[in-house]
Amino acid sequence: MIKNQKRKIEFFMPMLPPTTTAQQHKVNMGTKKFYDPPELKSAKEKLKAHLIPHIPEKPFDGPLRLIVRWCFPVAGKHHDGEYKYTKPDTDDLNKALKDIMERLGFYVNDSRVASELIEKFWADIPGIYIRLEELE
Question: What residue ranges are annotated as transmembrane (predicted)?
Answer without folding.
Answer: none
